[in-house]
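Good morning N.,

You mentioned wanting to compare the apo and holo forms, so I went ahead and generated the holo version with magnesium ion. This is what I fed in:
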Amino acid sequence: MRLSRYFMPILKENPKEAEIVSHRLMLRAGMIRQQSQGIYSWLPLGKRVLDKVNAIVREEQNRAGAIELSMPTLQSAELWQESGRYDAYGKEMLRIRDRQDRPMLYGPTNEEMVTDIFRSYVKSYKDLPLNLYHIQLKFRDEIRPRFGTMRSREFLMKDAYSFDLTREGAEHSYRKMFAAYLRTFSRLGLRAIPMRADTGPIGGNLSHEFIILADTGESEVFSHKDFVNFDIPSADTDFDDVAGLQSIFDQWTSVYAATSEMHDEAAFSAIPEAERLSARGIEVGHIFYFGEKYSEPMGAKVQGPDGKEHFVHMGSYGIGPTRLVPAIIEASHDENGIIWPASVAPFDIVVINMKSGDEACDSACEKLYSAFMKAGKDVLLDDRDDRAGTKFATADLIGVPVQVIVGPRSVASGEVEVKDRKTGARETMTIEAAVNRLVG
Ligand code: ATP
Ligand code: MG
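and this is what came out, ligand included:
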């Protein structure tokens, strides 16, 4: 992408409305624009990052055996009347009427709809287990939307729903998602801690919130420091291996970790003081086993091996991609801007032409640009007619992991500078060496 032809509206001033660093940087880098309270457009640079986050979420859902579909944002109120949630859900639900005056709503979540799909087609235990997911916009009329896309009213959610014949089966499905979440957050460059979460009136202990630590987080969290040493399940994890997944789950739930709602001061005090972690965190995912809560009122049942009908055991599993983008920034930035983990960076490389219009600089840049493109890299070429200082500031602000700096002096001797955005380390090398290094 040539920056001169791109759409990346950088802000020079710090926007007043942004209270936290991720919101400030997303606005300054031209990633998002608020359209009305808590409702955002994703501008091209932001959209690139969001797409990369979604791709990782999707890959890990697929790896764990979940199957993607797509359900609509607008739902009929009827389904929600069946489950009893149409009245129970409060003002967070946006209720709409169509021209026939039929009550509709903008989905805040999809348990009812996916249960309806399930009951329409699945009749036998032989078709289980099943896990269906989509990545779709949700709307919740949050009382306090804030911090940009961290807590917005319209937001993207990956929501998966599992169906099993038995509680044991459902627990295995839960642990698949548990392991998939550990992998997902790790690939996004985050260390997320699964914390016991409130299961509300249904009870049981199968609910975890995945929290990343950040001073600006809205949740108060308490945990053991051991989490930093636990291994992330490997890419070749066998998701059908019941005992294997159980042991991953057992390790990750063996030490204390709870949000303030579930906090047990006595259990926390029992941890030696030096190993206690009391901090703030951002909830990036939430998984839940809720048994027959929806299958029973909505009549989602299958025939079991005993020939009898059984209500299926269900779970739901959410991740918020539009919250993850700012969460990654909260965890990875410096005073000059964003520092993207390579896995979600909007571009892999930015080539900075310090003197656009200079023949030698232009031709070296073109050479680098086409070599990187040919190698399948996402590359941004800063070919704007602007000062070198402005270009350096832009590159640092938007956080592309590698900068290749092309200036008139070094180009005269066939050399360029390669800068690592994270460490700031710079290295001078020939154009060929830079290409070899970065396409390898
Ligand atoms: P919170 O306690 O932060 O309101 P929640 O418990 O209501 O979250 P869930 O219903 O479990 O959230 O939704 C699953 C995921 O969707 C959350 O873990 C979060 O990543 C994301 N999410 C929920 N609400 C929002 C929001 N208003 N803006 C952005 N992402 C959200
Ligand atoms: Mg909420």
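The first helix runs from residue 21 to 28.

Happy to go through it together on a call whenever suits you.

Best,
F.
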